[in-house]
Q: What sequence folds into this?
C-alpha cells in the first residue's frame, strides 16, 4: 500500500494486492485485484477494467 490511500469502513482487501498512491477504497468494497494509483475502488468485488 502506497502513501495517501484512504480505506473506508467495512472494506475488505484480500491477498497480495497493491493499492496505488492516492487511491480510495470505498465502504464495504471487496478488493481482490490491484488498484492503480489515483483510482476510486467500489463494488463487490472491485473489478479493475484496464
A:
Amino acid at each position: 500500500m502506497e502513501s495517501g490511500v484512504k480505506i473506508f469502513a467495512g472494506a475488505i482487501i484480500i491477498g497480495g494486492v497493491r493499492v496505488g498512491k492516492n487511491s480510495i477504497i470505498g465502504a464495504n468494497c471487496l478488493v481482490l485485484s490491484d488498484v492503480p494509483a489515483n483510482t476510486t475502488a467500489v463494488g463487490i468485488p472491485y473489478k479493475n477494467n484496464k
User: Anything to note?
Assistant: The chain has a mean pLDDT of 93. The chain has one domain: 1-50. The chain has no helices and five strands.
